[in-house]
Design brief:
Layout lengths: L1 H13 L4 H8 L3 H8 L7 H10 L12 H9 L15
Helix pairs in contact: 2-3
Length: about 90
């Protein structure tokens, strides 16, 4: 969860939004946004989804087996894991 929260916080800061401004868009008090960013509370999934969308991000569930490929695509770093697998031949 920590990486998600840090990504949301970084995106908020990059957009120049204060916690209060983000909270207003979400209908939440600034203090709650602060607690989320400090990981003092576990937000509901719907809150994380709404935060992400306001910050032009999207939460996506990825099969664990595909995580190395997705991370490689996102970071541009090579991994030993293949980025895709060829179709099986009949």
């Amino acid at each position: 969860m920590s990486k998600i929260i840090q990504s949301l916080k970084s995106a908020r800061q990059e957009k120049g939004l204060t916690q209060a401004e983000l909270g207003k868009k979400l209908g939440l008090p600034q203090s709650h946004i602060s607690k989320i960013e400090q990981e003092l509370t576990n937000p509901q999934l719907s809150t994380l989804r709404d935060m992400a969308r306001i910050l032009d991000l999207e939460l996506t569930l990825v099969p664990r087996s595909m995580l190395p490929a997705v991370r490689s695509l996102l970071t541009g770093e090579d991994t030993d894991a293949p980025r895709w697998q060829p179709d099986e031949e009949d």
